[in-house]
Specification:
Radius of gyration: 20 Å
Shape: globular
Number of helices: 12
Order of helices and strands: HHHHHHEEHHHHHHEEEEE
Largest sheet: 3 strands, antiparallel
Distance between the termini: 32 Å
Structural class: mainly alpha
Helix content: 40-55%
Strand order of the largest sheet: 5-6-7
Length: 366
C-alpha cells in the first residue's frame, strides 16, 4: 500500500515529498535487525550491519516483525519492494551525495540480508523459503514475486555502486546472484508463472482472479519485464488477460500501470473508466472497504505512465496513448535522469516536445 502511495511522486515532479519516506525506511533498519535475527538467524554485530527485515505491517515505533496472520502478515520482500521507491529518488534526481550518504547504505544492508538467507533449491535456483505470493496460493521455496523483487534489489544496488565507484567485488557477487535468481519462467499457456512448479494456468492452485498480481511486479514497478524484451512482455500480457481487470480500487491502480507498461493505451483506458465506475466511491476515495488512498495514487501514476515512461534508460514519449485522448498536452512530468518534459499532441501524434535536462545529462528519446 505504501509503495503505491509513492508511485506518482517522482514522475509528477514532487521528488521532495519522498524524503520522509526515505527517512522512515531508514528508521526501520535498527529494529529490523532484531527481526532479521529472530526470524532468519541473520546477526549484526556491534558496528556491523548484516541485514534488516520488515514485513507487510510496520510502524514508526519499530514494529518490523510479521503480522499475526501468515496469510497477510508474512512478506520480507516488502523491503526490497519499497526500496525501489527509495532508489528512484536518485534515478530521478541524480543527487549523488544523497545516494552516497542516505540511499546506498540502506540498499547495501538489505542486499546483505538476502546474501545471507537465499538458498539453492533442487534445480540450483536461488530462492527464499518460505515464500508466499501475497495473500493466496501455496507456500513454496521461492516464487516469482520474491525472486523478481530480490533481482531488482541487486540490480539497483549494482547501479548505485557503479554510480559511486565503490564495491566492485560486491557488484560481481550481485551479478552472479541475479543470474541464479532466474525470476521469470513461462508456462505451458504462455503465461508468466506465479509459482515455479506451475505448468498450465491454475495448476499450482491459488485464486486465478485474485486482486494481487504479485508475480507481475517485474513489469511494474520493476524493470525485469519490458518492451525491450518481447518474450517476457508477451507472457506478461497473457497473464494480465488471464488475471482479468476486476479488482477493488488499488487493484485497478496496479492493473492500470501494468497495462500502460505493455503499451496498450486502449486497455489502460478501459481500466480508467472502470475505476470511476466501481473502483472509487462518489467522493472519489479508492473503493476498498472502508476506503484506501493507494488506489488514488495508483491511478495518478498510471495516467502519467501512459504519457511518459523512462525505466529502460530512455524517455518513451506517449508510450500508451489511448485513442480517446485524441488531442492533449501536459507539462512538468519528469523522467529518470532528471529530465523535465512538456509535450502536446494532435490527432494522436506528437506535435511539440520540450525536454529540460535539469542535471545537465544527455537525453535519449523514443
Amino acid at each position: 500500500n505504501l509503495q503505491m502511495n509513492y508511485w506518482p511522486t517522482y514522475v509528477t515532479n514532487m521528488a521532495e515529498c519522498s524524503i520522509p519516506l526515505v527517512d522512515y525506511i531508514d528508521s526501520l533498519r535498527e529494529p529490523g535487525r532484531v527481526t532479521a535475527e529472530r526470524y532468519h538467524g541473520v546477526v549484526s554485530g556491534e558496528g556491523e550491519a548484516n541485514g534488516f527485515s520488515a514485513h507487510t505491517q510496520n510502524t514508526p515505533f519499530g514494529w518490523t516483525c510479521p503480522g499475526w496472520s501468515f496469510d497477510w502478515g508474512w512478506s520480507p520482500a516488502a523491503v526490497p519492494w519499497i526500496l525501489q521507491n527509495v532508489y528512484e529518488y536518485y534515478e530521478y534526481t541524480l543527487d549523488k551525495e544523497y545516494l552516497r550518504d542516505k540511499i546506498y547504505p540502506i540498499l547495501k544492508e538489505q542486499a546483505a540480508f538476502y546474501e545471507a538467507i537465499l538458498i539453492e533449491d533442487a534445480n540450483g535456483r536461488l530462492v527464499t523459503s518460505p515464500a508466499y505470493s501475497s495473500e493466496h496460493g501455496p507456500r513454496t521455496e521461492g516464487n516469482t514475486y520474491e525472486n523478481s523483487l530480490v533481482w531488482q534489489l541487486f540490480k539497483d544496488c549494482t547501479e548505485a555502486a557503479q554510480a559511486l565507484g565503490v564495491d566492485e567485488a560486491l557488484q560481481a557477487k550481485w551479478a552472479t546472484m541475479m543470474e541464479k535468481l532466474d525470476p521469470i519462467e513461462i508456462g505451458a499457456e504462455g503465461q508468466i508463472k506465479e509459482w515455479y512448479h506451475e505448468t498450465t494456468w491454475g495448476s499450482a492452485g491459488g485464486d486465478l482472479g485474485h486482486r494481487h498480481m504479485s508475480h507481475l511486479l517485474g513489469l511494474f514497478p520493476g524493470d525485469l519485464i519490458s518492451v525491450d524484451n518481447n518474450e517476457f512482455m508477451d507472457a506478461a500480457i497473457v497473464s494480465l488477460l488471464k488475471r482479468g481487470d476486476n479488482a477493488t480500487g488499488w487493484g485497478m491502480g496496479q492493473r492500470l500501470n501494468a497495462w500502460a507498461r505493455t503499451g496498450d493505451g486502449n486497455h489502460a483506458y478501459q481500466i480508467i473508466k472502470a475505476f470511476f465506475k466501481s473502483g472509487a466511491y462518489p467522493n472519489l476515495w479508492d473503493a476498498h472497504a472502508p476506503f484506501q488512498i493507494d488506489g488514488n495514487f495508483g491511478y495518478t501514476a498510471g495516467v502519467a505512465e501512459m504519457l511518459l515512461q523512462s525505466n529502460m534508460g530512455y524517455l518513451n514519449i506517449l508510450p500508451a496513448l489511448t485513442d480517446d485522448w485524441t488531442d492533449g498536452k501536459v507539462s512538468g512530468l519528469v523522467g529518470r535522469g532528471n529530465f523535465e518534459v512538456d509535450m502536446e499532441w494532435h490527432a494522436l501524434s506528437l506535435a511539440d516536445l520540450a525536454v529540460t535536462s535539469k542535471a545537465g545529462e544527455k537525453c535519449t528519446v523514443q
